[in-house]
User: Fold this.
Amino acid sequence: MAAKLRFFLNIRTKEQIFFQQHQTFHFSLFAFHFFFVPLQPQKQHLFMKIGNIEFGPRPVFLAPMEDVTDIGFRLLCKRFGASMVYTEFVSAEALIRDVKSTLQKLTISDEERPVGIQIYGRDIDAMVEAAKIVEQAGPDLIDLNFGCPVKKVAGKGAGAGMLQNIPKMLEITRKVVDAVKLPVTVKTRLGWNHEQLIITELAEQLQDCGIQALTIHGRTRSQMYTGQADWTLIGEVKRNPRIHIPIIGNGDITSAEEAQQAFDTYGVDAIMIGRATFGRPWIFKEVRDYLDQNHGDRSDCAKLAEHCGPVPMILDFNAKLDILIEQLRINVERIDEKRGILHTRRHLAATPIFKGIPNFRPTRIAMLRAETMPELLAILEDIRTLLTQ
Assistant:
């Protein structure tokens, strides 16, 4: 355990130095082009809490996603208004075996707080030991992944695979809660399939294990990510008078209007956004601005400015392209040129800012095949010139 902690602290120090060096220019790309959002006095609300972590009204969280929610992307999402962020999910087995790449996922920064670290696994002792290691990394909470549907996880009985072994899921949850002092939360799905929609009963069982919040993705494991997320059962869980922990809804939130509907129709305490953030970390600003405008509150702005500096009022194409270029530079400097570019391609492929450009296919192919920074930056600047002439 001591050796792991020394290794982790060494990694963390290097990562923190990198992000401290970049802190000063987080906003420099926009500073001369846009007006700033004025801060307004906060109004009184009943705030959602997880343990001692207090959130403003209608919090919007970044979902934990493998190969997506690295520290650079989390800081971008935080800058644009994410109320809480999560690391990529961490394998308990790999963590207790000292796998270097897994230990590196524990690196967090004070600028992104509150931040959760999510772990997954099928062995009770491994999950307990992993939770103890994670606690030393200093997150604000530990989340248990009982929802990942991919075959390499669920097929081995971890993630959403636990939906087929509820007694074991509950035992893992109880023992992790007892083993650590941090708040423990759970993320899961409606059930294994449509014949086993168990979430209403499961929510009570997990609450009885001592978790302090529950995130529900509105699909079954058998659906994977197909079809539409069903929020009706999420709403049923929230309306259950026996449920007193916060309920966080997840699934198919892709716009500010959908975010408000999730709060208004289903009464959830918070929402979590996942795939809609690909190539669009500014979605949190879009959602936050819409919710705050419709509810007369800007309670998250003070926290945002305190940690990351002011954010421009309007983001046009140039500003959004600058954000993607900044993300590319962060990834290349944090990893290396080849892997940093590969890591950014998912976002370049998914970003909505290139949609609707006539005859864009050849440029898109070239952009996603570029292997060096000069080559990729030249393509992106050519796109800028084309669209701003």
Summary: The chain has two domains: 2-7+51-308, 317-388.
